[in-house]
Structure formats: structure tokens, C-alpha cells
Amino acid sequence: MVFSCGQNSSEKELIGNWREIENEYSTWHFYPDSLVFKLTGETDKTTDWKANKTQIEFDIETFERNSTGKFIDTIHKILIDYQLSDKKDSLFGTLTNNYGLHNFSMLKTKNYSEYLTRKFGIKFTLPKNDSNKLKEVDPVYGMKIFMNIENDNLIGKTEHSNSLNNLETDIKDFKNKLESYFGTYDLRTERLYLSVYADKQIPDSMITANLAVTIKSDFFLNNKYDAIPIPRPPGDTLPINIYRMYGTDENKDLGFRKAKK
């Protein structure tokens, strides 16, 4: 594939940082001389690219087995048919490769906080804190909670619903998502915590006052694998950790987030 040294107007519109709406762990960084992208569960890949008004084209180098079982270096051509929003900050694409078609959409943002604001429709400015008391937490296990103050009223929502009224149901849905990924009886599902993105003007006390600090335990719930069904005792609960997120440089990346318990 031959690439020109200069850029056309369509390529210039794509320059910047993009993150998939359907999966925030898939990121695309378009630079004038390269494309760096990362899909879920994979390492960063860097390649040349070109584009026009309707299509993005690039190659991916992979190692695959041939008919004899030997690994060979293979080049896959990737084509993305796409359309930009009027503001040029949202992309709707269909990726075509050897495995078929994949529809996806992306947001162009300066950082992770802006991505969350646009995706979930709630504005917030994270507090800054460079203290050593901040802890690194894995975002995979954190169910997102968003809080802001509007007209002297607390506005809150989760990544699953538009209020905090269904918190227990939302936590259950999030845990089900973890179980579908790790397995029902994998202990990693117990690492679940509430990942709170609260505006800097909201004190910690207001956060804890509006969030449950315990959840109903699933340990005694009946399931098809029980030899003898055991009912859950009334009021049986487990504590749940709450972490407040902070606006450090690390929050722009895909790795661990800085938070305070």
C-alpha cells in the first residue's frame, strides 16, 4: 500500500484521540505519520494509514500458522467505511477484515473525563490530588457512578441507569457482566467496587451518604449447582468498597486509575 507524504482534508479531520463508545478499552490515536490503536485484550499496534471522505485504510501485521503448523508473517488489509458527525467529533464505522464485518462508533476527546462526560451525559470536574495516599485501582472491576451539583441539587447516575434509585439492581447487572467474562465462580468477580466520578465541589461525606456501603450477599442464593438449596439469611449483606476518582495524568490512559477509598 502506497501512502502520500502530505495529508488531505479528510485525514486532517481524523487526527486526534478516539475511543470506542461500545468498548472504552479500544482506542485509536491518529497521527500525521502513523495510527496507533489498541483493541480489547491486545497490545498497541502501530501502522501507516490513509483515508478519504468515506474510507480509512491500513495494514496489520500478524503471525499465523500455515498448513504445516509453522508461524508465518502475514499482512492483513483493513478497510473501514465511516461517517463523521457534523461536529467531526463522532465517528460511525464498519470495519472489514478477513473475519467479516464489525460495526462500531467512536468519540474524539482530549482525555478520559471528557469521554465519560459525552458518553453518559453528565458534566463533572474531577478533584486534583497528587498525594501518596491515592491508590491505583483496576477499572475493570469498578462500576461507574457519576455525581454533580446542579441548582444546589445532587445529580447522580450510574453507567447502567439515569439515577441512583436502582443501585442494587445496577450492581447486580455489573457483577453479571464480570461473571460472563471471568466465570460465575471466579473470585475476581468479588473485586467489584463503586468507581465514583464526582465533581470537585462535592465533599466525600455527600458521596457516602448517597451510596450504599453494603450489598446483599449472593453466597447463599440457590442455584442449579447446589446439591441442597440453601436460602439466604434475612439481612445478609457484604460490604462494598467505594473509591473516589481523581484527575491525575494517569486518568487519560487505559491503565490503573488514581483513587481514594
Could you characterize the architecture of this molecule?
With 261 residues, this protein is mainly beta. The chain folds into two domains: 9-108, Calycin beta-barrel core domain (Lipocalin, Beta Barrel), CATH 2.40.128; 112-260, no CATH class. The protein is built from four helices and 17 strands. The chain has helices at residues 9-14, 112-120, 167-182, 204-209, and strands at 16-20, 27-31, 34-38, 45-47, 49-51, 55-65, 71-84, 90-97, 100-108, 135-137, 142-150, 153-158, 193-198, 214-216, 237-239, 241-245, 257-260. The protein has a nine-stranded antiparallel beta sheet. A six-stranded mixed beta sheet has the order 10-17-16-13-11-12. It is globular and about 55 Å long. Mean pLDDT is 84; it is low at 250-254. Keywords: Coiled coil. Residues 157-184 form a coiled coil.
